[in-house]
Amino acid sequence: MSAPVEDLRTHLAPIEDLKAAAAVLRWDQETYMPDGGAEARAQQLSTLQSTAHERFVADETGTLLDRAADAAPLDPDAALVRVTRRDYERAVRVPSSLVAELSKAKSQAQQAWTRARQHDDFSRFAPHLERLVDLSLEKAEAIGYADAPYDALLTAYEPGRTTAEVASLFDTLRDDLVPLVDAIGDAPPIDDSLLRGTYPQSDQRAFGRSVIADFGYDFDRGRQDVSTHPFTMSFAPNDVRLTTRYDEDNVASALFSTIHEAGHGLYEQGIDPSLARTPLGDGTALSTHESQARLWENHIGRSRPFWRHYLPALRDRFPSALGDAALEPFYRAINRVTPSLIRVEADEVTYHLHVMLRFELGRGLIDGTLSVNDLPERWNDAMDTYLGVVPETDANGVLQDVHWSQGAFGYFPTYTLGTLTAAQLMEAIQDDLPSLSEQVANGRFDPLLDWLRSHVHRHGRILTAPDLLERATGAELSADPWLRYAENKFGALYDLA
Ligand code: ZN
User: Fold this and answer.
1) Count of domains in the chain?
2) Cβ pair 151, 410 in contact under 8 A
3) Which residues are tagged catalytic?
4) 294: CA distance to ligand 1 center in Å?
5) Interval 81-128: pLDDT, tens
């Protein structure tokens, strides 16, 4: 390895340590920290994050990048220089006064959002949201963009993709999705009442852990705890943690959330250890991350072969609730499609409509075609148009998601991009692994995990999401594989022509 790249690595490693330390504090905040710790924790996080930021935007980073540029013609050294340069140029363009203002506005907005949601009163949140929109626009102007300010915000999560591309993908998806949802709505509904019963948390926990251990999630390099909102956090490839939440009346909720988070966790545990303590040692884009979660959750966890293997064990674990559940009714129940108000509870078909609605409204806020005051009404109109259901309260409508209160404009589309990515990867996997269904039906996941390790996980941020997908599947991202998957699966489930 060349000395200039080595100098760059040495400079970046402690910055990554500071970011990982901040992540440990955030993990603790969501899992074990008593409420009383909130104020001190906010200060500790602010200190760690601003120290990491100052070190990163220092002139020294720029100098080291310049020196390393010519010295590193080959991957992964060249990737280190390329990705760090991208992060660096983005970071130095945003004035530190704006970073500080945004950080303060976000924490105030989150508190206001929590109260607004509790009291079902959007007006308590509105001025904070307006402020975040203004500051995010300022940030977009500082970063720069080719076409629209939303581009500058989207690329924080999706380097290499533009708003126009996302909009065009969503248009293609919508054209076939809306008729599919309508056809399902006209078909006799699936009865999913067999999922409800009494499922003790300890048994749910044991079952979920055994499933993801079978997938290859390594509990010697990870753990699972409980939090209000499930998430995955990585501090290093050898320390990747998951959380979940339990509903003792419904067996599906924690199980699929556990599988989903394990998909994220397997990605982080599979990143090449040599990329640790560098900016490359992370998932490449949110859509790629989400693709790993959705692939395990929907393509594997909600498939018939999977339940051919696991249903007997689930029945043994919960004999009184599920003792006589047969494969077919169970498979149908976990794949029921029904328009609903809450995104995080949506099925895999209508989920996209929740995302499209948020993409359109979020974009409108940023490009100035939608004012914050009109947001609740526009939300309800869009729910009616897309899903045919209208929330009776803003708490169950426009106030349901935390994202905008965190200033995370550009985040929502990554959920659908991830789902489309998962379906496209799955077609390539099925070509390469023609016996996948039998393997899954026998509880064997190592061929699938090996494929994901070599095509997706190990690369970290060396490849952008578009490059990674092109190499893994030979094509750029398209809505077609997901549409084929959905029309097949749900066409059969709902007996559609
Ligand atoms: Zn996810």
Assistant:
1) 2
2) no
3) 261
4) 7
5) 999 999 999 999 999 899 889 988 998 999 999 999 999 999 999 999
